[in-house]
Structures are given as C-alpha cells and as structure tokens.
Design brief:
153 residues; mainly alpha; Arc Repressor Mutant, subunit A; three-stranded antiparallel sheet; two-stranded antiparallel sheet; 6 helices
C-alpha cells in the first residue's frame, strides 16, 4: 500500500482504492454493532448466528467443511464454534453411517426457536441501518459490493 498523505491532523489515503477500503472497514465496524446488540440479548455471537442460519437452510444437515465454506467470515476453528453451539443444545452432530469419518451437523428445534425469536429484531436492526437508502440504492450497493468481491474468490 502507498503511504498516506497528511492533511492537517488527518491522514488521507494515497489512492482512491485505499480510501474505499478504509471506508468499507469503518462502515462494517459501525454496522456490525446494531445486530451484535440484538444477538447479545441471546448470548450469541455473529459467527454463531451465521452458523445457525446456514443450518436452518439445510434441514438435512451439513458436514463441517461445508458449513465453513458457507460462512460469511472465515473462522479457523469451526469445531470449537460447533462445540459451543452443541453444548447449548442449538445443534446436534452425528457420524454418517456410510463414512464414519464424516460428521453431519443439524440445527435442533431449540436452535430453530432461537432463530425465530431473533428474526424480527435482527430484521428491524437492518431496516434501521439501511431503510433510508430505498430499494434502488440498496440494489446498487449490493451490485457494487458483489463486483468488488469478484476477484477475491
């Protein structure tokens, strides 16, 4: 990265790409606080919530590797994350009968109830954050974000 250029007491990015990157980081930090407060009421992290939502969409269950590949943020220790969710009774794990090396993870009825309780408050937090943009701007924002991820795989 190029060195930042001083402008008074503030530094400005040396290139527009760096400025965009820094704006995204600041925005992500700010926006993550709203839903995090909602999840905190249920003693749930954003990563745990993400896993539960993934599993809700796969009622047949998923192996650990598939869960990891679908996560929004990469967590190097998915096993420990699943351990915590299992301990709370929100997921269950079992070994596949055909291949005993494969562990399949499913969301439990208790996990589904928790997600149902959180659906409204999480949606309200997102509407509060983005509702002022309107559908057209949200569509544009989502498209720009998709394009920016294009080469990052």
């Amino acid at each position: 990265m190029k060195e930042t250029i001083r402008a008074g007491n503030r530094r400005r990015a040396a290139c527009p790409e760096e400025a965009a990157f820094l704006d995204l980081l600041r925005t992500t930090d700010m926006l993550s606080r709203g839903p995090a407060q909602v999840l905190k009421t249920e003693d749930l992290s954003a990563t745990q919530y993400n896993v539960l939502r993934i599993l809700r969409g796969a009622p047949q269950g998923l192996c650990c590797g598939e869960i990891a590949s679908r996560m929004i943020t990469r967590d190097p220790d998915v096993t420990r994350l699943l351990d915590r969710l299992e301990k709370r009774g929100l997921i269950s794990r079992y070994r596949e009968t055909k291949d005993r090396r494969t562990v399949v993870v499913r969301i439990t009825p208790q996990g589904l109830k928790l997600l149902t309780r959180l659906d409204g408050p999480v949606e309200a937090a997102h509407r509060k954050q983005f509702g002022h943009l309107g559908r057209r701007r949200l569509r544009t924002l989502r498209e720009l974000l998709r394009v920016s991820r294009r080469d990052e795989g």
